[in-house]
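Regression test case RT-17, inverse folding.

Input:
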């Protein structure tokens, strides 16, 4: 395949997705890390072995000098768009979304990156003052460690619903093994960051009910999750995350 603008499915930061028949080519920018591309492909391959409904990966290749992940094309609608198009079914879609995340958390992928180790590294390079980093790392050390599959960016735009109603989970680049409460904390923060506080609170209640997790267990992760998010360096997000970090670190 060659890269053609008329085949574009989506444009994202540092990558463009193209349709090629029954396949999707995720083409990364030329300066994108080869190691990160290979790690994302490996994550997806490992998750595929759990039996979860996700696009099958076909391989990693080079297109016009750019690293590319080739995977199965799933025709359907993003859950995010369904929520917009059918507001009368919003609560039903949110329930589906939360149940699907709990299904992910019931899986175990022992070779996946450890969430605790990944968060430790991200906090250490977050650019926060040394005292703040130390306080956050101390808090992280006191949180319960588990070995569940965690998506790392579980939001409605990463769920695709096929015409037969089957939901597929997309984008496994941030997947780890760890405590599901940390994964839920990230989802909660991402809803809040989008200005959807009401949805965030509904989601929190649903997640805790479906997973049997105490709400305080999820909220305990908010500060360290917010700190780990800073490494993305996205404009406008730092001030939002700092509110949660300051509360968790006592600064």
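Golden output:
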């Amino acid at each position: 395949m060659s890269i053609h603008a008329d085949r574009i499915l989506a444009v994202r930061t540092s990558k463009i997705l193209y349709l090629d028949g029954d396949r999707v080519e995720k083409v990364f920018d030329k300066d994108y890390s080869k190691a990160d591309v290979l790690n994302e492909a490996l994550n997806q391959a490992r998750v595929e072995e759990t039996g979860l409904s996700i696009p099958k990966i076909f391989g990693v290749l080079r297109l016009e000098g750019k690293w590319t992940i080739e995977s199965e094309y799933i025709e359907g609608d993003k859950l995010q768009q369904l929520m917009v198009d059918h507001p009368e079914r919003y609560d039903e879609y949110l329930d589906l979304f939360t149940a699907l995340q709990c299904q992910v958390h019931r899986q175990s992928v022992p070779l996946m990156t450890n969430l605790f180790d990944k968060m430790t590294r991200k906090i250490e390079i977050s650019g926060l003052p040394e005292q703040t980093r130390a306080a956050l790392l101390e808090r992280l050390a006191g949180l319960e460690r588990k070995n569940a599959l965690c998506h790392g960016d579980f939001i409605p735009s990463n769920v695709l619903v096929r015409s037969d109603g089957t939901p597929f989970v997309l984008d496994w680049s941030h997947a780890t093994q760890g405590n599901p409460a940390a994964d839920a904390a990230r989802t909660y923060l991402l809803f809040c960051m989008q200005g959807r506080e009401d949805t965030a609170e509904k989601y929190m209640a649903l997640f805790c009910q479906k997973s049997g997790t105490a709400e305080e267990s999820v909220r305990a992760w908010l500060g360290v999750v917010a700190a780990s998010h800073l490494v993305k360096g996205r404009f406008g997000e730092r001030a939002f995350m700092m509110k949660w970090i300051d509360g968790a670190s006592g600064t």
